[in-house]
Amino acid sequence: MNKRPKAKLTALIMAASLLALTNAARAELSVTQGSAYAATDARSAAVPEWIYTLRPGDTFPAVARELLASGYSATRLLQYNGLQNGNMVQEGDSIRLPLNWLKRQPEPARTVSVSGSVQLISGIDGRKQPLREDSLVRVGDEILSGSGSATVELADGSEIRISPNSRLIFNRLTQYGKSGMVDTRLRLDQGEVHTRVKPVIEGGARFEIETPSAVAAVRGTAFALQTSGRGTNLQVTKGVVDFGAPGKTRRIPAGYSASVSTSSGAGLAIHRLPPAPAIEPITTPITRFPAELRWKQSPSPEYRLDIFETESGRWVESRKLRGNTFDISLLDNGDYELQLAGLDSRGIAGMPAVMPLEVALQARAATLVLPEDGATANDDMPEFRWSMNGSNEVARVEIAEDMDFRSPITTSEWAPENSALPAKPLGPGQYYWRVVTEAGGNSVASTAPRKLVVNGSLPPVRIISVNYVDSQVRVFWSKVDTASEYRLQLSEEPSFQSIIKEATLPDTTAALRLIPGRRYFVRLKALSEGPLTSRWGPGRELYLE
């Protein structure tokens, strides 16, 4: 966190300090293990160079083949380094490579996260398609964020976070062979971007964002850029940025903002950013909600809070706040980065206070209340009740025909309430129910199941067909879904006052041996494991000649 200077800078001192920064030393870049930028003699001062240190397994011819563009040979590289042959270079030795000798090829960027509705416009045919996670963004493509946001990663690991209602065009995405250096040129036509750019080599790697009114050339920094029809605003939170109207840029250091207006004759305005707010520490991971983010009140009239997922960079939340508290109880389980910045009178965000935060809520099993285990219900929409034992939890009731819930019948909606009705009526039969609680989006807990019998009348069983074969009659009937078995009765008169045969059957067919020349009547009813009332189906006459 940057500290407020002890004395207020006057405009003259600030201008002088900004001018002095233009003569700052060139930034260092670690490109590969054991590699760095260097310019130590007259030749490298005139020709920007990159120093490569040989790693285990490297050979001079292989390095030359992988890094040099066509037209530049290993022999020429030996001569440039004053070497007789490649065998003189071994692991740990360094060689100098002019930047303009390195290979260059287009290297697409990659989308690492997308939230909401974001469009990718092809630079080849202008076709629009939804931007997805892991989409490749190529030269000439545009991202139109609309109501959503996206995070894009460049070939060198630099990161661009695109705010809602923004339009970003990728004019150049060039990589210098396998050196890890890139040349990136973007155009922000409208909206806002936040960037974290890897350090670049002067005269070699490059990162530049152009807007309709300004240009920002970066030397390894973190900054935000906003543009509209009124002009362009820049806030630098790390490193330095060369910023201004084309051909009139000045070096803006961390802790300052700058703006270029489209108004006629308006020059570059430079202001010190509001200092980072002092956030009160939070014990992490957070295992119980409610929880609040608190900070010391400052002169800033408002604050801006941005919340990002640590791993993906996804923009979870961005809002303006008054006061000095924010309820973070709606965050799901995960690792986050919170950035809180004060806003000045122009609405420009200042230096951010950055806080890592982990949420690790654990769901706790609920306590079942009603119905009691083994209870019966005369209603096909019985109410289920329970009590929560955790914090910030949602729950739902699940109903199945088996104790293992392999075949769920229905569920209620996820809700923070302690009661629910099934999503559809329950037919007569025996069921099992339980309550599942969820906390933090990915932690769940289940109660032990309870048995419930729903009373009612089973539908009558209807005989489908009768087949006669010799002295045997086979009867077939329709299946009843909630039945466990069937009761069959055989009588010699249609009123079934005198039963001559009765049997309980598990299937929907039965074979009967009848005396030829006599008339019989057969009927069936469905049975269930619960105490359900049932009705006999209509009788069917049987006659064997």
Automatic annotation (TrEMBL):
Organism: Marinobacter salinexigens
Keyword flag Secreted: no
Organism classification: Bacteria, Pseudomonadati, Pseudomonadota, Gammaproteobacteria, Pseudomonadales
Transmembrane segments: none
Leader sequence segment: 1-27
Keywords: Signal
Domain LysM: 50-97
Pfam families documented for this protein: FecR, LysM
UniProt protein name: Peptidoglycan-binding protein LysM
PROSITE patterns (UniProt xref): LYSM
Alphabetized InterPro entries for the sequence: FecR, Ig-like_fold, LysM, LysM_dom_sf
